[in-house]
Amino acid sequence: xxxxxxxxxxxxxxxxxxxxxxxxxxxxxxxxxxxxxxxxxxxxxxxxxxxxxxxxxxxxxxxxxxxxxxxxxxxxxxxxxxxxxxxxxxxxxxxxxxxxxxxxxxxxxxxxxxxxxxxxxxxxxxxxxxxxxxxxxxxxxxxxxxxxxxxxxxxxxxxxxxxxxxxxxxxxxxxxxxxxxxxxxxxxxxxxxxxxxxxxxxxxxxxxxxxxxxxxxxxxxxxxxxxxxxxxxxxxxxxxxxxxxxxxxxxxxxxxxxxxxxxxxxxxxxxxxxxxxxxxxxxxxxxxxxxxxxxxxxxxxxxxxxxxxxxxxxxxxxxxxxxxxxxxxxxxxxxxxxxxxxxxxxx
Length: 347
Ligand code: TXA
Ligand code: MG
Prior knowledge:
- The chain has helices spanning 21-29, 51-61, 88-97, 132-141, 161-168, 207-213, 292-308, 327-336, and strands spanning 4-7, 34-36, 43-47, 70-72, 102-107, 123-127, 145-146, 174-177, 188-191, 197-201, 218-219, 245-249, 264-268, 281-284, 314-318, 341-343.
- The chain has 347 residues and is of the alpha/beta class.
- A hairpin with a 5-residue loop joins strand 9 and strand 10 (197-201).
- The longest helix is centred in the last third of the chain and has 17 residues, at 292-308.
- The chain is globular.
- The N and C termini lie far apart (48 Å).
- Bound molecules: threonylcarbamoyladenylate and magnesium ion.
């Protein structure tokens, strides 16, 4: 398949001026798959009302068919067609956090979207992205767009056009280039089908940010629950680079040079570089130990880059202190590392 590339970076402020805008719309409305930028990660979009198009998403990604998709909208009125009532409390959260990096799981009203979108569940995950280009495209197309992250299943999510191109060129109809995703981690997924609500996947909208709006509204969930996870996607192997990855906790001493570090990379805050062996490679994760936002933004890009380098046999990555804001990045890192964690003392 020939994959069209649509470079919209120069049209960020005025997407409707992009000369081939209609081509993107037509592709999506005629069964096509188009990868689009969002502020979290790139999504692989298809018309959520078209069974054939949605089936192609699962094929292109190699995604298990019981893993439901998030439906992307540009205005709340769209939900009336396929969501069975919106609770006042959910509405309040939407007022505060939308458009933005949070998806709500809501009761599904059947008959409007095709069944494949939800994998047979009676609930539906919805999100209104804030990315200028992504949002303008959703407005222009004006149909609910189902979009999982635009990577092959089990690979790190794509935060740059190049990542999408690497995984999906030749497998999808088109890719929109919209620069690097600002947030860098997938949205928070909040299950609102029961109260208190539960976080099915942590993201940059944290428990305490939600509780600030609605005190006492979140019930703690275990994201590593394999038997009965809230989000079916959480039970699959995820975000794994091919290079073995180990998380390093509590590194406080300087690691001496040694030839065993020759083909090793350390992915650490710049502020900690002085503790690392000079003969190892270094990739900055973020500015310093407090810079979680920077690390979120960079993580997937770093994971992609270690795989494309031939001379890296092992990667060690910095572990953030456990707190509300670091929950999302530590959740992704632990999955990428297959839970491999060591103490700094052991290095
Ligand atoms: O930031 C994001 O959310 C990105 C961008 C493209 O919007 N999308 C994304 O989609 O990360 P995906 O498919 O990679 O992850 C969706 C997650 C999966 O873990 C899935 O199991 C869960 O949301 N999910 C979707 N619908 C659900 C539902 N009805 N009930 C429970 N979990 C659901
Ligand atoms: Mg994904």
